[in-house]
Please model this.
Amino acid sequence: MIDYRNYLKEYDGPPIRIMEVCGTHTASIAHTGIVSLISSKIQLISGPGCPVCVTVTEYIDRLIDLSLTPDTVVVTFGDMIRVTGRSKSLQDVRSEGGQVRMVYSPMDTLALAKLEPAKTFVFAAIGFETTTAVYAALMDEMIREGLTNIRLLTSLKTMPRCIEWVCSMQGGIDGFLAPGHVSVITGSSLFEPLARDFHVPFAVAGFEAEQILMALFALVKMIEGKESRVMNLYPAAVTRDGNLTAKDMIHTYFESCDAAWRGMGVIAESGMVLRDIYGKYDAGSRNLYCDHSHHPMCRCDKVITGALKPKECPLFGKICTPQAPQGACMVSAEGSCCSYFVNRRND
Amino acid sequence: MAHGSGGKATSDLISSIFARHFDNPVLAKMEDAAVVPGAARLAMTTDSFVVTPLVFAGGDIGKLAVCGTVNDLAMSGAKPMYLTCGFILEEGVETEDLERIAASMSTAAKEAGVLIVAGDTKVIEGKGGLYINTSGVGFLPEGDFEVSASFLRTGDMILLSGTLGDHHATILSARMGIENTIQSDCAPLHGMVSALQDSKVHIRAMRDVTRGGLATVLHEFAVASNKCLRIEERLIPVKDQVKGLCGILGLDPLYMANEGKMVAAVAKEDAELALSCLRKSPYGEAAAIIGEVISGEEGTLLLLTEAGGVRMLTELYGEGLPRIC
Model:
């Protein structure tokens, strides 16, 4: 058997660009020091897999408006509180009386809603296929319990169209480290049409160092052999068809829609929104497409798509730091810029 | 609100709970100020405690308020001697909770060998919250004993007194309603420090590893001394349950808060002796040598990961966990 660690370290062929689509992979790569274990000819590019980072400013502004509406409380994951919309963040409006609660799970909204039935609780429902399954479970539970004071403001994204968009860009990506969590729900077959159409290999990977290294090795070998297959290297959690129960539940409540991505604009059929019959649970999620960068020199758009490395943004580490983030990529711990900054990555 | 009026209700509260639990000859005089013997060199510190929940697995806010200040004194090399404590109580605090907290402060103070010599109580409007400030005075040993993060030298070894993340994981589990058997590590560290001093270990720097976690403390060491520190992930003890919780919640033990752990940089030749001193303490059984000061890029902290990679560590960015101590 080939020593894959040694192979990755000693690789001296043509430069290779591999994109890790998922923010959890970005964080894991930083935490395990994987860049120091592979040849500098293998470049790892952070992709658009951090949900906070790809959310457009109009969505944030809508959340802010809701938080300032009487008897309305915005419920959110912690990361979203610090992201700036057109001019302010949820954190900023808290001091102006904005009602914002932070939770660790969307399901915590149920308890809040029961405790204060006179208030409407709006969950800031962002995320990819994995988290959408949790929102479907939340819908299921609140309808079962007859709760009428919970709404979702959704900015839900799906992977394939966005990867397609990245593939179609010039100066492209040679291979993709496919997102493990998303694949648990969707199945690895999701990537097969992309691999075929764009002649680019995918490796579905877990989040441990060895799992990532194995996947990188598989990608390098496929790239060298000009193969464009989907390899599932996370079989303990991912099947070819995915979690059918979760997919059914998602499709019960949500339907496909066009979605706006920071830096990429509106991509057709790349998001999900509550079906019309559940429209009364929606807090106005449709058509939130506008995106205004907080700082004119912010390059989050280029970083998200892999066109620029975080350190190539003129603001990176200077006026844009985790304490004073100018763009969304510096806010979330899984954002490319934040991860590069906090871990002092030089690649 | 009458309990905070300064009149009869206040003195009843003080005598029925605080004076009874903290009883000692200095406090018993009930004067405006405590008069106590001193030393040539004193260490002084103060800290406020706002943790929620007030009572958690392995401790409560009272134990935390004593240990936190005792540990700050101990890290200067001082023997902790006296504490003062100020209570701010919100209306609605249950007397039983107050009893329990005062009793646990008393137990912790006895273990640490400190006297609580002065106190104050205020009652404000609210919803049953309780906050404690403790100030402490310690006596430094005779001679010129001094430790500082700036004293690190190349070749020094880095020791950690036990597992990381226990307190952080306890508080987070309590708030999230996660059931497990993780307990806070809240404990006084003065015993370990005096063992190191008694054994004449050349200690360059010591710090208790609280908010910000190990990485934040060692990053400070690296910057203050302008040295390169390298620690090894495989040598850093973390309990399996804590590791599991970190895996689920995406936490990093290196940045989690502790309340009964210290890190020390000592001269290389004293490292094994220092390790045996730490391990003799009931709170240091899992102590380990976790790294060293190497020649490398100045002001940096490197982690050799379990995967064999190198990761550069910085101080904690972001909020950590609010109201953890």
Observations:
- Residues 1-341 of chain A form a domain with the Rossmann fold fold (CATH 3.40.50.11740).
- Chain A has a mean pLDDT of 91.
